[in-house]
Amino acid sequence: EIKKKGIKVFELHIGQPDLPTPKEILKEIRNFREKIIAYTPSDGILKVRAAWQEYYKSVGINLDLSEIIVTIGGSEAILFTFAAISNPGEEIIVFEPFYTNYNGYASVAGIKLVPLRTLAKTGFRLPNQKEIEKKITSRTKGILICNPNNPTGTVYSKKELKMIINIAKKYNLFILSDEVYREFVYDGEKHYSIMDFPKARARAIILDSVSKRFSACGVRIGCLVSKNKKVIEAATKFAQARLSSPMVEQLAVIPLLKNSQKYTRKIALEYKKRRDTVFEALKKIPGVKCLKPKGAFYITVKLPIKDSDHFAKWLLTEFSFQGKTVMVAPASGFYATAGLGKDEIRIAFVLSSWKLKEAMNILKIALKEYKKNF
Fold first, then answer.
1. pTM to 2 decimals?
2. Domain topology for 23-259
3. Three-state SS for 71?
């Protein structure tokens, strides 16, 4: 509605990169020559699975083709995994704040997410083993992590992942590892996949997607990876029920999967530049508190206000500066525990640095005006 009034909106509320989709993907779509856009094998076109296999080999993960299922985005990988390892009413532990769509897919699968809070003052590091074990019951089927993390940008250490593996082994749990931001790590940090740990492989499930990695969110191609045959068998049944992933889009991502680093190395540097722009600007806004994220392209920000939902709505309904405003994501949506995140927002640094610099200045002015009235 606000755009209809001629107000320019800097959209920082969602992880939709502004970087062009690689020309290799667009070329494959334009050059599609098949006469029929047909159903494809439920677990994915063979050469697409082979391309995923090649991609994983390039990041040090060796897989058999039978251990990969192509999904309709990472979202479907999440849903299939929830349903494959859990019965309705069973539980999966998740660390909050977390990617808000986990809630939706848990609801569809009829399972319960059990939240365990991480804190800004500790860098949103994982809780200790004792705290995690307190949440485990006879209904617990798995532990879900997002690494690098959305919405905090935290990159988990080898020590933290080993702790999760030890807990999973002790209580016979699955480890669900959302690794869609694998390439986006900064300041010398190293990303460790859950598949890097031999002890985890029998109970590990990777949830993955090309959306952010290749700036191709609308392509809707992801994958589910597991060395556990029972998980693959169960997930395949769900894949068969929905028939197939889209044919053209599957074929379009093959070139990038086979040569991913040519593209991802460049955009990782660009996201680091954008992160630095946002972080330095936020540090200068009175009352704002945040940590510099080490991965992904999000930052969780504590604001000197009481209700970020109201603030976010106010930005789009009552405020503008020189015909411009900012759209942010209230952080309450990233928590399952009621009342948390009310004074926090998530910012996605998915615009160019000069746009982000202007957006942060508008946010600074908006906060000053908001505090006068509320």
1. 0.97
2. Aspartate Aminotransferase; domain 2 (3.40.640)
3. strand
